[in-house]
Predict the structure.
Amino acid sequence: MLLLTCPNCGLTVEETELAPGGEAHLTRFGPASGDAEFEAYLFLRDNAKGVHFERWCHAYGCGKWFLAARDTATLQVFGTYSAQTKEPPAEILESIAKGRAT
Amino acid sequence: MRRFSAFAIAREALRHHEGWGRTWAKRPPKARYDVVIVGAGGHGLATAHYLGKNFGITNVAILEKGWLGGGNTGRNTTIIRSNYLQDPSAALYEKARSLYETMSQDLNYNVMFSPRGVIMLAQTHHEVRGYKRTAHANSLQGVQTEWIGPERVKELCPIMNIEGPRYPVLGGLWQARGGTARHDAVAWAYARACTDMGMDILQTCEVTGIRRDGGRVTGVETNLGEIGCDKLGIVVAGHSGVLAEMAGFRLPLESVALQALVSEPIKPCMDVVVMANTVHGYMSQSDKGEMVIGGGTDGYNNYTQRGSFHHIEETLRALVETFPMISRLKMLRQWGGIVDVTGDRSPILSKTPVEGVFINCGWGTGGFKAIPGSGWGMAELMAKGHSPLTEAFGLERFREGRFIDESVAAGVAH
Ligand SMILES: Cc1cc2nc3c(=O)[nH]c(=O)nc-3n(C[C@H](O)[C@H](O)[C@H](O)COP(=O)(O)OP(=O)(O)OC[C@H]3O[C@@H](n4cnc5c(N)ncnc54)[C@H](O)[C@@H]3O)c2cc1C
Ligand SMILES: [Zn+2]
């Protein structure tokens, strides 16, 4: 059972309380964009085997979105962070560097 | 290759079964092949087989990082049906289903194809409308399916409770010629036929890089050294994104876990396959007597071949309501596979941005049924550069907005 800490309300909860939302940090393209940009935004995914940055919604809790860094090959969780970021914060990258070294 | 027959069994019995040969040969890799296929699952092996059989291309190697058929091909619940909605899907899956009918004879290997019939239950009014529409579409496509009422469902599957409190059975889409087959045997049968044509099957050979020269493929790097090729077929299901990254492009799909489980064996009680998509569960009985059960995928990216336990619980909860007699059955085994799910829930059979590299993936939760048709079309695509069967399934459809939307049918494993 996957356990994640929701940074919005601070609770550590089981995955049955959460709804997965796919890859994080996608660039969202608007109406004036080209076909290739829309394709990239809507469909193309890194689908990483390894560290994956992803969106989660605390659906059966506070109802808010947040982001998580998780290894898809080991299911190790490196931490969760606010959805209001364009890239993973320094402490998450540090936790990944440390976690992957051991 | 020694042919299998009743006579051969008698002959070998008299010789204490010491005369049976290997099913496929074990040889070291050559330096170069005309075609290299990555992935010895059903789709990769079928592709290689039809390259040889239909196009005379036999200088072929099939590279497998684990053991042959050890991916999703050996982990699936073997439901075979072709009752899809869209024309390109119906054509491809029906081609596959019809090839399954004669596969044992064609490959001289018993794949235990059992056309016992498949019912897809309608448990909401939305599903009633959806399946009636599919039945009409199928009759135009030449795929034999039929809308049946709840009494007929009960007649076909007496152990079912059609008056469940929450989701009573309102009818179903019945495909009498659908069914199941032995998954391992399908992989082994194609492997045997490939080896007989002189192709090399290399197990424990993992592709770690794709060599290119000016936008064209020249070969692959593996743990057994470099292997050159003119054309490369990537047929690796859940690992498609990993191989695409090696070749320098991205794919419109994500890899998630799908689980299945089987019960202890019991006496024959159910001779059709039943799928219940609203409640996310399906069940059939194997020849050994085990109830074979599957449900929906996990929602998050995963490469570990392990899924979340609560999904199994949900599936069983739903099935116990539909089949009350299984409530005291013990479950024997449970496992997972990594399935490659695309944006429109339809597969990709396509050229790629790298010249000479072709990809066959995106079968997600439902590609076992498609193995022979997919191999047939993929071989034509790789040999001639185009194929009527695969035409609609190109990668460019995501950019051009020409989706083959089967997501209604693929919300659940099948
Ligand atoms: C639990 C479950 C139930 C299912 N139920 C059904 C069903 O009832 N009906 C149905 O039609 N479908 C079903 N499916 C889907 C079906 O199993 C798949 O769509 C199908 O088997 C895919 O076949 P494949 O040959 O593409 O992939 P696979 O059989 O997975 O073969 C791909 C192979 O590529 C190899 N590979 C990966 N990376 C590399 C590398 N770098 N180098 C070399 N080799 C590599 C892997 O080891 C693997 O053996 C189910 C799947 C699962 C997991
Ligand atoms: Zn919360």
About this structure: The pocket of flavin-adenine dinucleotide (ligand 1) is lined by residues B 38-44, 63-66, 70-73, 75-79, 206-207, 235-237, 239, 258-260, 294, 337, 339, 363, 365-369, 413-414 (CB under 6 Å). Chain B has two domains: 25-109+182-252+344-400, 118-178+255-342. DSSP finds eleven helices and 18 strands in chain B. Residues 53 and 197 of chain B are 8 Å apart (CA to CA).
